[in-house]
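Zinc finger A20 and AN1 domain-containing stress-associated protein 8
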Amino acid sequence: MEQNETGCQAPPEAPVLCVNNCGFFGTAATMNMCSKCHKDMTMKEEQAKLAASSIGNIVNGSSSTRGKEPDIVVVVDVQAGSSELMVVSAQTSCASALNEKTEKVKEGPKRCNTCKKRVGLTGFDCRCGNLFCAVHRYSDKHDCPFDYRTAAQDAIAKANPVVKAEKLNKI
């Protein structure tokens, strides 16, 4: 009580180890966790909220309210010892699994449009919109349908507009 009268703060409490037993010290502001464990826990909470909101959007957008299946409550233990409740619909969890499989369409390796040789990162994009290897990158090597002549004429015409002076009156 004497400290409150003088305006001094109370001495700090003894250091508390992180509740996740990672070996670092925690603080009361971070629920007795070290900064890294607290950051990991908040990231997991944000991801869970994001997943729940995206599932809610899928449910609202794709299924009717009459045919809605009962929700399943899942309890997830976090390392901090607290538990979170997540409400997940059985139908949406199956639908999201199917969506993930369809989204993982594997794109084949990049190949030259003429000789079908793998080009990877060294491929050359032509103005005709195709990808070519070092041998076929020039327009005369792959029978390019792009009209370079008219493209150049248009570029010159835009860069050099016709300047026409006004007529002068004779005195």
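thats it. Residues 108-158 form a domain with the Zf-an1 domain fold (CATH 4.10.1110.10). Residues 63-95 have pLDDT under 50 and may be disordered. bye
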